[in-house]
């Protein structure tokens, strides 16, 4: 994966002038490659309005990705003719050069992107990557401390009017994600179209999508750090549960509320006989499995095996807590012999 | 039980770390905090730090009637509460404290060669 995909780059990073034009091209190409591969985590560094640097020019360019678009142009306020965009990649990646008279960044509401889809229809939209972010540094600070008491007004989706344009603001906390993208009917569930902006080290990703309205269906497509790719889920079972796409065995059922049945001591996990089982009752209603399903078990009756597995997750949770403390805590361990 | 290694820069930080660990989940009943020179994956080394750097009257932290795990046989049979204990096994700050003796690779190699030339094979 090229360096550019890393989260660390800030949206401003690309605005610093590279020493040579050749470098700019290589850099830009790598960014476009990552975007088209659905792995680009710093979309504001590439998409939207960007200044040009001499000798390439002194004005501004607007870059956008409209999958499958054959041709596109930019309609800029105060300019009578549409400004044709160059198609840098056949997948539908475009760049339009604004006239030299454009000395400063164009206002988000001052231009629209017009493109012809693969189906031949002509569409005009505002550019999501021209709009500023909405969450303040103070919001992020409070959320980081766990003291933000109005997060429900900030995270999730909210109708907003930004720079005079109505749309929906999305924000989600995904601290370990390598890239978060908004997918929905409005972008044909294509994770390359609306990658979100990472807000520093807060773990929060946000994006304002202009012209989107109430009732739009959406999801977040997240590239996790664990598999380095989106974790896919599939509908399954009678209740349309979502399960991992690669699940081997799915047991669907209910844990009965207020129903208890006596059972033997709980001991495989703990290494001692505990008669304190919760005695819950689970009724399996439907079992689905792959034809060659694998069942991963741990050695039954071997407490250290159970405890080691359970400690892996706990160790991580405790380490996360410690790292949120405002001090230097390089490491933590939860050795299995002493667990429980 | 959690073993926490930290670079202590001020007094009271191990206590902060213990509380963070206790608050994370109910199974964490004992937290031992050690300095950077202790191998947290070696319980004998951790116990060495407890034995040589902990002064019980000021380095033990008890959290009484904290929420515990139902499977823990020491937890209250009715409400599952228990007492959590934090052990600060870091060196006291603010002054000279007994330094840990270490043998570096060079010294080790020298001893080995001395033993070797004396006809002792190890």
Topology:
The complex is a heterodimer of chains A (340) and B (122).
Chain A: H1 21-36, E1 48-51, E2 60-65, E3 72-76, E4 83-84, E5 86-89, E6 93-97, E7 111-116, E8 122-125, H2 137-145, E9 156-162, E10 165-173, E11 179-184, E12 197-198, E13 204-210, E14 218-223, E15 233-236, E16 241-244, E17 249-260, E18 280-289, H3 303-324, E19 331-333
Antiparallel strand pairs in A: 1-2, 2-6, 3-4, 3-7, 5-6, 7-8, 9-10, 10-13, 11-14, 12-13, 15-16, 17-18
Chain B: E1 2-5, H1 13-24, E2 30-34, H2 43-53, H3 56-59, E3 60-67, E4 81-88, H4 105-117
Distinctive features:
heterodimer, A: about 350 residues, Immunoglobulin-like, 4 domains, 4-stranded antiparallel beta sheet, 3 helices, 19 strands, elongated, disordered N terminus, disordered C terminus, B: about 120 residues, alpha/beta, UbiD C-terminal domain-like, 4-stranded mixed beta sheet, about 35% helix
Structure write-up:
The complex is a heterodimer of chains A (340) and B (122). With 340 residues, chain A is an alpha+beta fold. Chain A folds into 4 domains: 3-126, Immunoglobulins (Immunoglobulin-like); 137-223, Immunoglobulin-like (Sandwich), CATH 2.60.40; 233-289, no CATH class; 303-338, no CATH class. Chain A has 3 helices and 19 strands. A 4-stranded antiparallel β-sheet of chain A has the order 1-2-6-5, with no helix packed on it. Chain A starts with 20 loop residues before the first helix and ends in a 7-residue tail after the last strand. Chain B has 122 residues and is an alpha/beta fold. Chain B has helices at 13-24, 43-53, 56-59, 105-117, and strands at 2-5, 30-34, 60-67, 81-88. In chain B, helix 1 links the parallel strand 1 (2-5) and strand 2. Chain B starts with a strand and ends in a 5-residue tail after the last helix. Chains A and B meet through helix 3 and strand 19 of A and strand 1 and helix 1 of B. Strand 19 of chain A pairs antiparallel with strand 1 (2-5) of chain B, so a sheet runs across the interface.
């Amino acid at each position: 994966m090229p360096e550019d995909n890393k989260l660390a780059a800030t949206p401003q990073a690309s605005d610093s002038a590279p020493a040579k034009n050749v470098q700019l091209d290589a850099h830009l190409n790598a960014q476009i490659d990552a975007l088209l591969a659905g792995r680009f985590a710093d979309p504001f560094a590439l998409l939207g309005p960007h200044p040009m640097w001499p000798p390439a020019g002194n004005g501004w360019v607007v870059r956008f990705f409209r999958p499958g678009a054959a041709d596109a142009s930019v309609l800029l306020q105060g300019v009578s003719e549409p400004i044709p965009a160059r198609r840098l990649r056949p997948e539908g990646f475009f760049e339009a050069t604004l006239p030299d008279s454009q000395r400063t960044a164009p206002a988000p509401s001052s231009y629209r992107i017009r493109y012809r889809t693969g189906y031949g229809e002509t569409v005009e939209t505002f550019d999501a990557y021209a709009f500023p972010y909405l969450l303040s540094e103070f919001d992020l600070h409070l959320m980081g401390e766990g003291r933000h008491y109005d997060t429900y007004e900030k995270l999730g989706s909210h109708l907003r009017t930004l720079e005079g344009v109505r749309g929906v603001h999305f924000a989600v906390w995904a601290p370990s994600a390598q890239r978060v993208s908004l997918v929905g009917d409005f972008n044909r569930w294509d994770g390359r179209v609306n990658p979100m902006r990472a807000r520093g080290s807060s773990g929060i990703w946000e994006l304002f999508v202009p012209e989107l309205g109430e009732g739009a269906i959406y999801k977040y497509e997240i590239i996790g750090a664990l598999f380095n790719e989106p974790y896919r889920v599939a509908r399954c079972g009678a209740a349309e549960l979502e399960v991992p796409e690669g699940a081997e065995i799915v047991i669907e059922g209910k844990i009965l509320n207020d129903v208890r049945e006596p059972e033997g001591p709980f001991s495989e996990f703990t290494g001692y006989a505990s008669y304190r089982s919760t005695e819950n009752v689970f009724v399996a209603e439907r079992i689905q499995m792959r034809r060659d399903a694998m069942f991963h078990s741990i050695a039954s009756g071997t407490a250290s095996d159970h405890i080691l597995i359970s400690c892996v997750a706990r160790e991580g949770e405790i380490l996360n807590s410690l790292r949120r403390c405002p001090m230097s805590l390089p490491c933590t361990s939860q050795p299995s012999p002493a667990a429980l | 039980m959690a073993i926490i290694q930290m670079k202590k820069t001020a007094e009271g930080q191990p206590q902060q770390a213990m509380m963070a660990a206790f608050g994370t989940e109910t199974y964490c009943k004992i937290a031992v905090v050690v300095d950077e020179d202790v191998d947290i994956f070696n319980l004998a080394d951790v116990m060495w730090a407890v034995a040589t750097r902990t002064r019980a009257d000021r380095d033990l932290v008890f959290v009484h009637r904290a929420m515990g795990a139902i499977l823990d046989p020491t937890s209250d049979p009715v409400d599952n509460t228990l007492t959590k204990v934090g052990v600060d096994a870091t060196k006291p700050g603010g002054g000279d404290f007994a330094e840990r003796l270490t043998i570096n690779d060079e010294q080790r190699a020298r001893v080995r060669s001395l033993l070797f030339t004396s006809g002792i094979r190890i």
